[in-house]
Amino acid sequence: MAQPVIEVRDLRKTYIVHERESGMMAAMRSLVNRKSREVKAVDQVSFRIDEGEIVGFLGPNGAGKTTTLKMLSGLLHPTGGEADVIGYVPWKRDREFLRRITLVMGQRNQLVWDIPASDSYDLNRAIYRIPQDEFRRTLDELIELMELAELIKKPVRNLSLGERMKCEIAGALLHRPRVLFLDEPTIGLDVTMQRRIRTFLAEYNRRHGAAIMLTSHYMADVEALCRRVIVIHHGKVLYDGDLSQLVTRFSPHKTIVVKLLDEVSDLSGYGEVVRRDEDGSWAVRVAKADTAQITSRLLADLQVSDLTIEDPPIEEVIEQVFSVEASAPNPEPAA
Amino acid sequence: MDNWRVTLAQFRIALAVNFQYRFNNIIWMLGLMVDPVVYLAVWSAVAKMQGGSVGGYSAGEFASYYILLTLVRHITAAPMGLHERRIVTGELSALLLRPVHPVYLDIADDLAYKTITLLGLIPLAILLIVAFEPSINLTWSSALLFVPTILLAAAMRFTLQYTLGMIAFWTTRFMSIFQVYLVAQIFFAGRLAPLDLMPEPLRAISYLLPFRWVEFHPIEMLLGRLSSAEIAQGLAAQVCWLLVAYGAFWWLWRAGIKRYSAVGG
């Protein structure tokens, strides 16, 4: 059985937010009578992640993703609940704990701006107390996997955003962390660079069995890397399970795309027409349960040259999850 | 021991970075040297007008006092507002993820900066010596004693300012609080005038504040103006301040991090 590396029970984080209206009078009033309210950034979150798992952590802005990652990497003290990450309580910030994890935030940099990344890596070797031969081996491996050989010799300020991000990620992995928390690791990068980083993360995970928890706004990242996703919204876990199941469970529709040989003026009798192209292609959205029946009707009624049945894009499904939560405040417990 | 290895690694990096910015650094350092030179010019002019000396200081003694002040100020200079900037920019979070206290890196940065700028300080000192003809009468014993005294002074100021900077964990207006410290320093470190020339109440207060022991005391000691009892008193004061600052350092750091991790970075 796989070993759990992260176990979280009823984790909570509440912020006290002070509020005042704009304007001078409001500023004066707030000196005497300060209004504040509680914001539940993370509300009773529980999950478990095993060794070697890559888990996508999804949710809209302000859902509590970053707050959770910060608690699990020891930067934030929770309001309540428990967490165990590789046998440590993260927010005690034990040196041994910090030496075995990493948190990469898309917009933060650890590398020194004015010198080549390789010099910063030497510093990391001292900070993480990495033995020289192990350091050499890991660095060579990272250089090979991410094609860094030329980049790490240049001063960091001369690198492009994507190149810098590659160097940042390499720097964050030199100590071979067992757990990786990645907060938007591909933000702002072009498609090729995103793909390169994705491939690398998958390979790192395969080689070293590190557990990865990843947030991203790019669904391509999630689809490429994560079999499992945890969806969080307003601080609560809405879904925890297979990515494929998420689609089945939350999307009540499928899209039938047909290419017709005949000239047809309308297909709305079959379902909701979402697209019609010049070349005779139509996209019709139908209820999932009716898909088979409508497909056979289409094939019987019309001259079809091509037909495919598609799941809606994952973005759409995620949106669906959030709207389900809005209409039903107490969803059934996540799987 | 391993922590000091981090300091050494960071020192090499900081040396490279400071070397890249050597001209900026030296100009910045020269800027800090403007006011001692102005005071020196004023006081030597006054001494000459008064027939050779003011309050027991001749023009040549003023010259040696202020030339040494530039040196002492440079050696004991310490960072300020470090934590405030890191809290505002979020840089602190990145530092806290590392399994080493950031102070080990900050010490390295400080030493590297001083090493590089020392290159600019030496020609400046020579220039001042030529221009103002200080009366220098160093003895071996005071020169030898100066080494631990100045090192203690530097350690004391670094710890004190680093610790004071932690106030930034509780307020976003740290720099305005720090202004008070900086103004007090001008009076009580002996920058405006050697403390002997200050009115009695100010001089009495100067014994209770840290500034005297960082700048005035090491200079006076090197100039051979202190009795053995006064040297011992200075040593005791420096050690006391260092211990107090060191205790406060850990206490405030723990409390500050607790607060920081409660509200988020």
Describe the structure.
The complex is a heterodimer of chains A (335) and B (265). Chain A is an alpha/beta fold and 335 residues long. Among the domains of chain A are: 4-100 and 177-247, Rossmann fold (3-Layer(aba) Sandwich), CATH 3.40.50; 252-310, Alpha-Beta Plaits (2-Layer Sandwich). Chain A is built from eleven helices and 13 strands. Chain A has helices at residues 24-32, 65-72, 95-98, 117-127, 132-146, 161-173, 191-208, 219-225, 243-250, 291-301, 314-327; strands at residues 4-19, 35-50, 54-58, 80-85, 101-105, 179-183, 211-215, 228-233, 236-242, 253-260, 272-276, 281-287, 304-310. In chain A, the strands form three sheets. A six-stranded mixed β-sheet of chain A has the order 5-6-7-3-8-9, with helices on both faces. In chain A, strands 11-12-10-13 form a four-stranded antiparallel β-sheet, with helices on one face. Residues 329-335 of chain A have low confidence and may be disordered. Chain B is mainly α and 265 residues long. Chain B has one domain (2-263). In chain B, strands 1-2 form a two-stranded antiparallel ribbon. In chain B, a hairpin with a 2-residue loop joins strand 1 and strand 2. Chain B starts with a helix and ends with a helix. The chains are: A alpha/beta (335), B mainly alpha (265). Chains A and B meet through helix 3, strand 5 and helix 4 of A and helix 1, helix 6 and helix 13 of B.
